[in-house]
Amino acid sequence: MARVLDRVVPRSVPSALLVTATTTAALLVLAGVATLTGLPLFALPFAASAALVALAPTSPLAQPRNILLGHVLGAGIALAAAALLGPSVWTAALAAGLSTAPMMLLKAPHPPATATAALVGLTAPDPLFLLSPVLVASAVVVLTGVVLGRIVRGRRYPARPA
Description:
Elements: H1 2-8, H2 13-37, H3 44-55, H4 64-85, H5 89-98, H6 100-105, H7 112-123, H8 131-151
């Protein structure tokens, strides 16, 4: 496991500083867009996605398709579960668990998206939550990753075609 982690996340002081800077930049962009638009984009699942993109930009779990599909699937499943069962910790747990199968079947797993499903199952927001903030925040995370991948030397994102 350590060898796999070393390939994805090099362990050195310069690498740690670079990852810290890119993670902070990505989170500041997310916070800035949230502040400017008034949209609740800075929810924890999207912060986790931004950190994953900055920490391991070549990981299959951090690719644009995984981020976009994962969050939309998780939120959609949770919206359906909350509509049927009402918001609760039980609905959140069920929705988060059930969101993994479609992500796997569509070859788009994204672990932070299970947190999106849990958040939606717990709160039962309006169905438009799927578009904003879920789709908007996911797009902001991906676009920030693309921009940082272009301007920060040695950081390529996405790692493969989106």
